[in-house]
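Handout, section B. The chain below has 215 residues.
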Amino acid sequence: AGWFRRLLRKPKPSSVESSLNSSCSASSSPSSSSVESSGSSPSTTLAGSVCPSLISVSDINASGSARWTKSYDVCICHSEVDLELVEELVSYLEGQPESFRCFLQLRDATPGSAVVTELCDAVQNSHCWVMLITPSFLQDPWCKYQMHQALAEAPMANGRTIPVVKDVDRKDYPRELRSLYYIYMAVKEKSFKQIRDTVVRYLQELCQSSTSGTD
């Protein structure tokens, strides 16, 4: 009887702690939602609550960080039609305190090199891959090729492939990406921040894993 009374008097976890735990659980589970029709936002996106990490931004930027094992932090996969929007995104990411290193094909590809070689090298030498899924992306065979290369490179790596959806109907969304959370670009500035936060989270996890492995 005594232990039963103590159990009844045991304090319940605070609402803040419960909220944090539920947010962490939600952010790690696969998305069951698909892309909504153009103009409406999805019920579940990649940019949910991010669980706290033991690795700080300063640790990510440290000279011995696992971040520097690859040439780029982010590879942007997009169609030429969407270049103006992508240039804004690259400018935003490169202007952040982390000074993200972005691969932009028309800017960073080696002149005279084969397209296939450049696309494969960009995927292999980048930590994260942002897929700007637009109607033009879906019609571009090179975009689809790069998407498949990214999925083949790290099919189970959480946070490396970041789908960003803009003006695409549910029926047209790539089936290959439906197991991943995505960002729906309704408000450009908000979406840019979501992309930045997702890349930071991946780099934090990468650095934390690297540090744990050397202990």
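Note. The mean pLDDT is 78. Compare this with the example in section A.
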